[in-house]
């Protein structure tokens, strides 16, 4: 992949802030004419610098008033256990982020629910019911002081 130049970085910066910008608005803000702006954005998409464009819905607007980070330790690390947990994560909409991590836990999940009881229910009745989780450590989010999906480019 070729290196990004300053114009590519400017376009990525603008699109990460507002992907609904028209090509004309994007071109104006990036100091380009419309055609070169469109070609560059197309190239950024084709080369994988832009993987998708989404609408970001605030959790509260979706009725999700509780959020927690949950560290998960599995009973074992057999391939079937890992695959089963990964499938569970992939199909559970309440899990909005998942990463395998180093340290005493295997995974770090970000989970949302309508209320704290909903989070408890999800952890106790859905996740622990899998029978492959050794333990969890849950940290409730009291207040989110920063949230962004923008990468520094």
Automatic annotation (TrEMBL):
<keyword id="KW-0238">DNA-binding</keyword>
<dbReference type="InterPro" id="IPR011008">
    <property type="entry name" value="Dimeric_a/b-barrel"/>
</dbReference>
<protein>
    <submittedName>
        <fullName>Lrp/AsnC family transcriptional regulator</fullName>
    </submittedName>
</protein>
<dbReference type="InterPro" id="IPR019888">
    <property type="entry name" value="Tscrpt_reg_AsnC-like"/>
</dbReference>
<dbReference type="GO" id="GO:0005829">
    <property type="term" value="C:cytosol"/>
</dbReference>
<dbReference type="InterPro" id="IPR036390">
    <property type="entry name" value="WH_DNA-bd_sf"/>
</dbReference>
<dbReference type="Pfam" id="PF13412">
    <property type="entry name" value="HTH_24"/>
</dbReference>
<dbReference type="InterPro" id="IPR011991">
    <property type="entry name" value="ArsR-like_HTH"/>
</dbReference>
<dbReference type="GO" id="GO:0043200">
    <property type="term" value="P:response to amino acid"/>
</dbReference>
<dbReference type="InterPro" id="IPR036388">
    <property type="entry name" value="WH-like_DNA-bd_sf"/>
</dbReference>
<keyword id="KW-0805">Transcription regulation</keyword>
<dbReference type="GO" id="GO:0043565">
    <property type="term" value="F:sequence-specific DNA binding"/>
</dbReference>
<dbReference type="InterPro" id="IPR000485">
    <property type="entry name" value="AsnC-type_HTH_dom"/>
</dbReference>
<dbReference type="InterPro" id="IPR019887">
    <property type="entry name" value="Tscrpt_reg_AsnC/Lrp_C"/>
</dbReference>
<feature type="domain" description="HTH asnC-type">
    <location>
        <begin position="4"/>
        <end position="65"/>
    </location>
</feature>
<keyword id="KW-0804">Transcription</keyword>
<dbReference type="Pfam" id="PF01037">
    <property type="entry name" value="AsnC_trans_reg"/>
</dbReference>
<dbReference type="GO" id="GO:0006355">
    <property type="term" value="P:regulation of DNA-templated transcription"/>
</dbReference>
């Amino acid at each position: 992949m070729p290196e990004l130049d300053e114009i590519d970085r400017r376009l990525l910066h603008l699109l990460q802030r507002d992907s609904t910008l028209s090509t004309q608005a994007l071109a104006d803000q990036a100091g380009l004419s419309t055609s070169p702006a469109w070609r560059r954005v197309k190239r950024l998409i084709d080369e994988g610098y832009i993987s998708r464009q989404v609408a970001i819905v605030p959790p509260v607007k979706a009725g999700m008033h509780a959020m927690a980070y949950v560290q998960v330790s599995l009973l074992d690390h057999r391939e079937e256990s890992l695959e089963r947990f990964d499938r569970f994560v992939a199909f559970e909409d309440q899990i909005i982020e998942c990463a395998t991590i180093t340290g005493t836990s295997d995974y770090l999940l970000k989970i949302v629910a309508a209320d704290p009881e909903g989070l408890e229910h999800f952890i106790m009745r859905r996740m622990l019911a899998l029978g492959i989780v050794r333990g969890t450590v849950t940290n409730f989010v009291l207040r989110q002081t920063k949230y962004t999906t923008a990468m520094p480019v």
